[in-house]
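Shipment paperwork, digital attachment
Item: protein structure file
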Amino acid sequence: MTKDSVYVTSPASGFAVMQFNRTTGDHIYNVRDVDLVSPSDVKVWNNYLHVCGENQVRKYNRFDGEFMSDKAFVKYDMKCSFMLFHNTWNPNQGS
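Attachment content:
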């Protein structure tokens, strides 16, 4: 969640992350990415969406849905099911 939005995804959503207005519940838009396989979790960090899917965590600009391909995040031979972010984590350091 952010001050203005709630982001939702699931394997049933296909290749989309849905954004809803946090106050009214109205649907705002979908981030669609055909390379996003079986999304299961979404987190917002520094105005980016981090989406956990099969074999990777993909990163998007939360305002326009642009895939941040130059900032590939995690690719690993596993199925990601959820993510935890610690408040001292610095994504630029990768740890």
